[in-house]
């Protein structure tokens, strides 16, 4: 139920972008239930090798749960990936939060507020999933604040105009969904379940962005130019969200074997490009790539790769907004300290009072 | 009080949501909160933003005692060889109705 105060859009929901992806999320959820239903064995036999048991469970498309034995590297990989994902949701509130006070109408403001609130929620689902692997929330927060864990490089780009909110929804959230839908089938149960929840909510994000761009692109020439400018700036950074090309990707092979990751970076990038072309046509906006064209042989679009050197520069801290984003997060954390302390003090006082009454 | 110490004491709560009247509460995830009241409010904000529930339980994670997956087979073994507890174990002669 999204924003039931507002009338439904005129076009059927199935025609809007993301409809197919939402179907995939539902399929992943059904598969999760089916896999649970056909669980063919319980825990490892007393004399069974734990590593073999783990491989067997993963191989049978069953989920690994928090208290199961798992290879230490699997645990570390998941903590790194889920934490980075959680941090991205939290930092990702900033570029769009920038426009809440300047949204063009009350409707857009309410929607954007709900969306940014969702990002906070997604961060919390994911932190909770990471904590099941034996790391504490405080450690995770500290790793982000110290810059020892990363967040998605895309959030180091600025939101210069209102149309950027639309472009983020359509392209950034669109790319995120393409990346995340396969994670709904991840071998680690708590992550897979969190991702199903995240993806279902994320599809509203993509649609609201698309609607903003559609409205602008069918408005005045100045509005259309603003929409085009936003797409021009966000296209390549969105393509870079899928990470380095397969040949240079460090974690891929092992993650695929563990069924944490299901498709390669390049496969997902291609899927995203193929999805966007038709959507851009409906918008009446141009994807800023002179070499974008259908390849009959590959049954896919040829496209220009993003600038991976730029990606590396942004990841290593030298994007347009890295320092601003981290400074803001550190300040927000420090400014919230008194709230956490007051809540803890209040809880301690009440416990004390209860104990007195009981004594 | 230094920040990490005060935060380490923020307990973890497991959250259960009843989606609709007539269904049982189902585990949906966890969160941190200093006390039960705040845990309940946070759970509402975090897990029921889209009318996912009509009732929420929050339980201190430390209060849950769980069976271990390692002993799963042994623990649940006693039920494994008692197939006669299922109605399908019994042969019903042809022509018998309402059984």
TrEMBL record, chain A:
One Pfam family matching this protein: PaaA_PaaC
Protein's UniProt keywords contain Oxidoreductase: yes
UniProt EC number: 1.14.13.149
One Gene Ontology term of the molecular function aspect: phenylacetyl-CoA 1,2-epoxidase activity
Keyword tags: Oxidoreductase
The protein's enzyme class: oxidoreductase
Region Disordered, annotated ranges: 1-25
Record protein name field: 1,2-phenylacetyl-CoA epoxidase subunit A
UniProtKB/TrEMBL annotation, chain B:
Keyword Cytoplasm: no
GO function terms (MF aspect): phenylacetyl-CoA 1,2-epoxidase activity
Signal is among the record's keywords: no
Keywords on record: Oxidoreductase
Highest taxon of the lineage: Bacteria
InterPro entries assigned: PaaB, PaaB_sf
EC number(s) per entry: 1.14.13.149
Broadest EC class assigned to this enzyme: oxidoreductase
Name of this protein: 1,2-phenylacetyl-CoA epoxidase subunit B
Designated gene of the protein: paaB
């Amino acid at each position: 139920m999204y924003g039931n105060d507002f009338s439904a859009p005129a076009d059927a929901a199935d025609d809007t972008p993301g409809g197919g992806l939402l179907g995939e999320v539902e399929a992943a959820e059904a598969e999760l239930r089916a896999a649970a239903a056909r669980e063919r064995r319980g825990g490892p036999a007393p004399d069974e090798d734990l590593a073999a048991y783990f491989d067997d469970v993963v191989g049978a498309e069953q989920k690994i749960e928090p208290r199961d034995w798992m290879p230490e590297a699997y645990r570390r990989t998941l903590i790194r990936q889920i934490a980075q994902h959680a941090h991205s949701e939290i930092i990702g509130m900033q570029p769009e939060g920038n426009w809440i006070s300047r949204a063009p109408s009350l409707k857009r403001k309410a929607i954007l507020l709900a969306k940014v609130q969702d990002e906070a929620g997604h961060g919390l689902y994911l932190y909770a999933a990471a904590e099941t692997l034996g790391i504490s929330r405080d450690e995770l927060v500290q790793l982000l604040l110290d810059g020892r864990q990363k967040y998605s490089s895309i959030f180091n780009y600025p939101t210069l105009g209102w149309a950027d909110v639309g472009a983020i929804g359509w392209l950034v959230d669109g790319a995120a969904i393409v990346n995340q839908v396969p994670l709904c089938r991840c071998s680690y149960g708590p992550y897979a379940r969190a991702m199903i929840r995240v993806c279902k909510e994320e599809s509203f994000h993509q649609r609201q962005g698309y609607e903003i761009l559609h409205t602008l692109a069918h408005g005045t020439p100045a509005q259309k130019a603003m929409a085009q400018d936003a797409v021009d700036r966000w296209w390549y950074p969105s393509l870079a969200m899928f990470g380095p090309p397969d040949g240079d990707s460090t974690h891929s092979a092992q993650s695929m074997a563990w069924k944490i990751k299901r498709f390669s970076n390049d496969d997902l990038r291609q899927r995203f490009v193929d999805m966007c072309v038709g959507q851009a046509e409906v918008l009446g906006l141009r994807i800023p790539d002179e070499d974008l064209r259908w390849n009959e042989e590959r049954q896919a679009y040829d496209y220009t790769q993003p600038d991976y050197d730029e990606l590396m520069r942004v990841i290593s801290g030298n994007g347009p907004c890295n320092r601003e984003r981290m400074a803001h997060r550190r300040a927000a954390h420090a400014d919230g300290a008194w709230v956490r302390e007051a809540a803890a003090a209040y809880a301690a006082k009440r416990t004390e009072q209860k104990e007195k009454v009981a004594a | 009080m230094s920040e990490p110490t005060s935060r380490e004491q923020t307990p973890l709560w497991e959250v259960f949501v009843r989606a609709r009247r007539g269904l049982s509460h189902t585990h949906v995830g966890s969160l941190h909160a200093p006390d039960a009241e705040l845990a309940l409010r946070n759970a509402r904000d975090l897990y029921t933003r889209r009318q996912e529930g009509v009732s929420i339980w929050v339980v201190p994670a430390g209060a849950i005692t769980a069976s271990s997956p390692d002993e799963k087979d042994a623990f649940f073994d006693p039920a494994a060889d008692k197939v006669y507890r299922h109605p399908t174990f019994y042969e019903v002669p042809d022509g018998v109705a309402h059984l």
